[in-house]
Write a structure and sequence with these properties.
There is one protein chain. This protein has one domain (about 1-135): Alpha-D-Glucose-1,6-Bisphosphate, Chain A, domain 4. The protein has helices at about 15-20, 80, 110-135; strands spanning about 1-10, 35, 45-50, 55-65, 70-75, 85-95, 100-110. It has three helices and seven strands, in the order E-H-E-E-E-E-H-E-E-H. By secondary structure, it is of the alpha+beta class. It has a seven-stranded antiparallel beta sheet with strand order 1-7-6-5-4-3-2, covered by helices on one side.
Length: about 140
């Protein structure tokens, strides 16, 4: 099992990052247009949908807005990864002063193709989030 950790500093508030991560039912421009559905309450289910249907699912383990969100993470984007065991996805958001915050993304417990995909896609995904927030955030 692997662990992927990615950190990015973003010129916006922790609340803006939290809002982007928990936006429900709206396409995420920074995430290839995927949508996510959840109430984000502890033990609530969530689903991520991409162009081909469900891409991942799980449950909320912990939510402390706007600082921490931890989820089970069960990739389902294709039949091969759907057979692999789930892992966890954790977001930690820390204000760092000067109008910036640091987002730490930790994806742990995956193996096989899902782990390889996460390792290669995570930096681009969260750099796209950074760019989108810095270009569109009204709370800088």
């Amino acid at each position: 099992m692997t662990e992927t950790v990615y950190r990015v500093r973003i010129r916006c508030t922790a609340e803006a990052v939290w809002s982007a991560l928990t936006e429900t039912d709206s396409p995420r421009p920074w995430m290839r247009g995927w949508t996510v559905h959840s109430s984000w309450e502890r033990n609530a289910a969530y689903t991520m949908h991409g162009e081909g249907g469900e891409a991942a699912a799980g449950h909320v383990i912990a939510a402390d807005p706007p600082h921490r969100l931890k989820l089970t993470f069960d990739p389902t984007w294709d039949a091969g990864v759907a057979k692999e065991p789930p892992g966890t996805l954790e977001y930690r958001i820390h204000p760092s002063g000067g109008g910036e915050c640091e987002l730490t993304v930790t994806i742990a417990g995956l193996g096989g193709r899902s782990a390889s995909s996460v390792a290669s896609d995570t930096p681009a995904t969260y750099e796209a989030l950074k760019q989108w927030l810095e270009d569109h955030s009204v709370s800088r």
